[in-house]
Predict the structure.
Amino acid sequence: MTLDTIMEEIKKANSIILLAHESPDGDAIGSLLGMKLALQKLGKNPDVIIREFPKIFSFLPESDEVKEDTDVEKYDLAISLDCADLKRLVGSEYFEKAKKTIVIDHHSSNNMYGDINFVNPVAPACCEILAGVFSYFNIDIDVEIGTCILTGIITDTGGFKYQGVTAETFEFTAELLRKGVNVSEIYQKVLETRTKANFELLKRILKRMEILEEGKIAFTYITNQDEKEVNAEAGDHEGLVEIGREVEGVEISIFLRQKDNESKYKVSMRSTNSINVSDICYIFGGGGHPKAAGCLISGNIEQVKEKIIKEVKKELDKIKVDL
Ligand code: AMP
Ligand code: MN
Ligand code: MN
């Protein structure tokens, strides 16, 4: 079975590097740090690459041990966590140079780019997959590992509220609570705290938000200039896309964020009901999950808006026909 092969490769490897997707969220960071701690229990000493570390996650164990770069030639094994494709993997050069590669993920758009792939698209978070993996490996999930894992689960489920949440999610959380993991503190730190910059960005996106297509689309954006003006740091844009879908009647929330290369925008989409935003993002070379997905599109704001809304409208028309 895949997990036995993964264990064999871990045992064989003298040097291991752990990698995750760009603009890392709580699931990416929780997976990396939880995996680092778990591998340490197996006598390994893996390196973790994170280049943009959102400061709200700096309470996590091992967060001051992460590296921006090490020796690219050094690794027997590279493990990619919470990342659907090699293009989005930070440190993909380490992955490409490693002697063996493993992908553990929960994105339905994962294109199986590892030598060994352990992908479960129905898992609500990569961290929840890791909890199962660690149990299979008989690694004790202690308070530190539990804190990392729960951070991923809480952030990727929006605080246990998205549909992907399973009975196991709650059972596992209850188990962690019994072990002493401070569930309410994690929740408060990762979901109930806005940095000042994020709050300033929130004011701007609310002011600009347009409700289009008979109330079914919420659209807003931020530019490089905005981020500069509010002194935004890594992760300060996280969560802004969620606001649009709170509006009654909205089926899809669209949020654009200008990239460093100014003629490109990162598109984030969230869906409330039946529209699969991962399929829409896939058209533009991106992907994600049915209700949360992203892609990169070239152009200025107006051009990118037009391109994405054209595709969204096609999907909205389909549900009109279904009714
Ligand atoms: P975001 O809007 O960046 O929060 O991303 C929403 C979900 O889609 C996350 O699970 C991301 O990992 C995934 N995602 C975002 N951008 C891309 C992309 N360009 N390609 C594949 N998956 C993506
Ligand atoms: Mn993620
Ligand atoms: Mn995830």
Summary: The first strand starts at residue 16 and ends at 20. The first helix runs from residue 2 to 12. Residues 106 and 121 are 4 Å apart (CA to CA).
